[in-house]
Amino acid sequence: MEVQALLITFREVLEALLIVGIITSYLKRVNHTKYTKYVWLGAGLAVVASVAVALLFQVVFTGFAAMGSEIYLKISIMFISALLLTQMVFWMAEHSREMKKNVEGKMDRFITTGNVVGMVIHSFLVVLREGVETVFFFAAITGGNIGAAMQGWGAITGVVIAAFVSYIFFKGTMRVPLKTFFQVTGAFIILIAAGLLVQGISMLQDLNIIGSVMPHVYDLTWLLPEHPIDYDHYLRDHGVAPLLSGDVGVFLKALFGYSSMPSLEEVIAYVGYFVVIYLLITSRQSKTAKNEKQKNTNVEALQSETKHVI
């Protein structure tokens, strides 16, 4: 859970800090630092609102638990979080290149009209979006215990690393491109999303909401049990211990959705998820290459017409 919390918090906090940093840096560059306090006011209010959302979410979850329906809420959160995590990675990959230009364009309009309220609301919504996403993802990886994730070393470390990376980026001392950071962390986020998807399916099968054509495609308990209890049971039943500890299995299950005895549906969902991701990536790259080619063609045509006129 802590590693998941670290990666998620790092991504969300870094995205928020980058946008706020772009805004404040631009205001400094155009000699309008007097508006900086309004940007930070919006960001601060968003942090407070995010905490309020976390508390409200916890109250709702407790209400479901009192009705004995928390398991259905957990499953729903897992599926929605898997979708949101995937969307987050692709959104950042698509918009990171134009992010600076778009943010500065909005700031120009706010400065021109003297729209202080607009600045506050803009920074508020930017940070609030990241805060709400973090709350939702924490609920998914902890089974609803958001407070445990917020107070753990993973979330705290993620915030510290994100603040450090943001600081050295805007100080101009960062040598590794942010694109590389987002690609690496994005790969881990995708793995987490795949794990949540599979865990959701497993829980549905445990509740007999959906069946299984093949409950156990293979059994890797002899190599890596997914829980210390499975380790003990295997040792008791076979007289020999599995090669790896059940603690490792717990870690991998929490991080990537590892299962020592997955059903056929889990395997299909896991493999299918990555097939879809691969198709989306190749489609996006093909579209980008086509747009670049068209852009170059238009530039060449314009240059040719200019020479002809001259």
TrEMBL record:
GO molecular function: ferrous iron transmembrane transporter activity
Location of this chain's protein in the cell: Membrane
Superkingdom to which the source organism belongs: Bacteria
Membrane topology according to the record: Multi-pass membrane protein
Spans through the membrane: 6-27, 39-65, 71-90, 110-128, 148-169, 181-204, 267-283
Transmembrane recorded as keyword: yes
Record-level GO cellular component terms: high-affinity iron permease complex
Xref: Pfam families: FTR1 (PF03239)
UniProt keywords, alphabetically: Membrane, Transmembrane, Transmembrane helix
InterPro entries to which the protein is assigned, alphabetical: FTR1/Fip1/EfeU
Annotated stretches, region: Disordered: 290-310
Protein family membership: Belongs to the oxidase-dependent Fe transporter (OFeT) (TC 9.A.10.1) family.
Protein name according to UniProt: Iron permease FTR1 family protein
Organism of this sequence: Anoxybacteroides amylolyticum
